[in-house]
Amino acid sequence: MSIFTKGLRQQHAPSSLSTDRCPWSGRHELIDSVEKLAETRSRPTASPPKTSGPFGSNRGVSTPAPHRPWQATALARARLLQFQVEHRSGGGASAVYNGLLADVVRICTTRETLPQRISGVRVEWAWTNLHAAEVISIRTMRPDELSAVIPRAVDLAAKRMPEDRSQGAALARLTDPNAGAPSPLLVAQVVQKAHQLSDAAHARARHFRNLVLATSAGLLLAALLLMLVGWLQPAALPMCSGDRAVCLLGNSPSSWDVTLIALVGAASGAVAGVVALRRMHEEATPYRVPVALALLKVPSGALMAVLGLLVLRSGMIVALEDVSTAAGLLGGAIVFGLAQELLTGLVDRRGQEVLKAA
Asked: What is the spatial distance between Cα 348 and Cα 155, in angstroms, rounded to a whole number?
């Protein structure tokens, strides 16, 4: 009991003459409440648990959910690396190691802006940090832990640098059972070199994807310009037979002719893109190169349809110059829309090579 509450009890104690109707009969409960509150505030409060590492020490508190699949993969990889270090004897992780993983957590739990998504800077930042953290983890491993990492190092080296003579001796040392246990530095150097080559391959895939998207945007702009010209000046781009006896929507050019032909060609290009996706190599990057290649075929088909019918009308293709019906014109637009595969197929093959290297 505190001095304050003890004085209150003595000051407001009821007299023996008025026990039946004491005006202070409810003050004892008030004094008890004040006393309990004073005792509660006088107790030492437990300090909040300190956090350590990029994820903190409270395992029950989860980080915000990632927004894209590659972020989920990178975040899980960061948790695994942090787990390996925390359960290793000989002390905790270094500040550099924790800083690398903390950057990964921040990257994977915040949304990308459109310029960041196009440039791929956040993807590269996250994976280069993970690769650097893995190299640091290997440098600090015990011999028994290092033996479990050697098969992964050999696989990475065989995939990323199969003909690299500078790494041939190091790779032979890892695979030779008579050479003795390799040092953590040697294993870390092999893994670091493989990761550098992997990062460079992913950068090439990103540059290729951006080039394809930029080309698609340019072709789309060109198709829209042709549609605008056809809308404002239908006679400048007549979608008609050679003698103008039959046009797409009548006996004379109309404002909708070029737009309809471009839409039919774009639909043909989209069909060709879906077919091309079946032949595409499985992607191991987060840049969606096959999708970019499929999108390239849509504006290409629209342009090829319009330009192809103009060439058809000029009489340069003798076998097709006898088209004299609206259905024949639409059929020609479909054929030319699919014919864009002759050009974009070359880009598809280059995309296959990029994806295979990544």
From this structure: 28
